[in-house]
Design brief:
single chain; alpha/beta; Rossmann fold; four-stranded antiparallel β-sheet; 8 helices
Length: 233
């Protein structure tokens, strides 16, 4: 099926969640259904490039809906997607807190499936269609418009040259580049550089990426490139 939008649904009530997920999928929405906060965090990290809207029940295990909303608003990729709170709790303070955390809409249960769909469609219509172009592998994100790297929610302080090298590997993960080819690629960024300078840039890039530095691999006798072991993870 060709889906028109991709949503995150967080709902721990199996019957309600299954009914809403199936209804939305029948209406051409791809749905990642998380039954608790841990699963929601994983879906956000693994599918950030796809997600366009989140529907959050407040009372779910591990991380509640408010915590998940905060996680979304702090995330480098999905921080601007609409967040709808869907909850049986009928307390004004919950609604106020949810909206203050960055929620866009609040729907009280029980609500008809068509009403929820109408709220979803209303929020999606308001979205700015112009989105940054993101590259993602594992928990590393590159904003190719702003030329910035994020790991989880934290921006990584890279030099422009370090970013350019990272983007080269991320854009062409199946290729291996010699020092000379990398040198040619970054020569417009630095006028006076040498082969061994490439080694220094890559070493510094890996250090700044910490555990995620494993994504950049040294291919002995050839050069550097993306670690292909992580292409299908």
């Amino acid at each position: 099926m060709n889906y028109k939008h991709t949503l995150l649904l967080v709902e721990d009530e199996i019957e309600s969640g299954e009914m809403l997920a199936n209804f939305l999928e029948l209406n051409e929405y791809k749905v990642y259904w998380a039954k608790d906060g841990k699963e929601a965090y994983k879906f956000i990290d693994d599918h950030a490039n796809e997600l366009e809207l989140a529907i959050l029940d407040i009372m779910v295990p591990y991380h509640d809906g408010k915590e998940i909303c905060t996680h979304i608003r702090n995330h480098p990729v999905v921080n601007e997607i609409p967040v709808l709170f869907l909850t049986a709790r009928d307390e004004e303070q919950d609604e106020i807190e949810g909206l203050e955390l960055g929620g866009d809409d609040y729907i009280k249960k029980p609500a008809s499936l068509n009403l929820i769909k109408a709220h979803v469609e209303s929020q999606l219509r308001r979205q700015n269609p112009e989105k940054s172009n993101w590259l993602q592998y594992d928990h590393v994100y590159l904003d190719t418009d702003a030329k910035e790297m994020y790991i989880h929610e934290e921006k990584v302080d890279l030099t422009h040259t370090e970013y350019i090298i990272a983007e080269l590997f991320f854009q062409h993960p199946k290729l291996v580049y010699s020092r000379h080819e990398i040198l040619e690629h970054i020569s417009d960024e630095e006028k006076y550089i040498f082969d061994r300078t490439v080694d220094v840039h890559i070493k510094n890039l890996r250090i700044k990426m910490k555990d995620e530095g494993k994504l950049i691999k040294t291919y002995r006798g050839v050069g550097y490139g993306f670690n292909r072991e992580y292409l299908h993870k």
